[in-house]
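Lab meeting, item 3. Inverse folding demo.
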């Protein structure tokens, strides 16, 4: 009987995230869990970028007191993009293939197109006999 009573007491002391309901430690100082806090911060950053014309990653980092690498990580992930042609203003975010400054993702549009062509080409194998009809998933009978 005492064991059940202890479980009830434990449940009362457990703190939960107000957004997602995850259990938090009783000494955790915030109402939101770290994942929800990051999501909230990201949404605030996104709104700030949308409402300001010539904002750079340094401005975002200073405004929200976050490291510049965090802003650049969101850019590389393709989660945020600066307005207009601002790739030259963003320092440190470059195409991973050619090194050209970019404002979004990991690849510049040219390298992205080339990569897509390579993917398509890798699926197309030169046929042994031209002009034959081929069916996907069927092996050639010998």
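The presenter then showed the designed sequence:
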């Amino acid at each position: 009987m005492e064991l059940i009573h202890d479980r009830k007491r434990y449940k009362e002391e457990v703190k939960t995230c107000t957004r997602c309901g995850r259990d938090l430690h009783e000494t955790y100082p915030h109402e939101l869990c770290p994942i929800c806090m990051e999501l909230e911060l990201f949404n605030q950053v996104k709104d700030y970028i949308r409402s300001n014309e010539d904002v750079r990653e340094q401005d975002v980092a200073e405004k929200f007191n976050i490291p510049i690498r965090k802003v650049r990580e969101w850019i590389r992930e393709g989660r945020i993009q600066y307005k207009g042609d601002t790739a030259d203003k963003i320092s440190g975010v470059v195409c991973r293939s050619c090194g050209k400054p970019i404002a979004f993702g990991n690849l510049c549009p040219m390298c992205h197109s080339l990569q897509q062509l390579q993917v398509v080409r890798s699926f197309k194998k030169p046929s042994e006999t031209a002009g034959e009809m081929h069916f996907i998933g069927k092996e050639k009978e010998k």
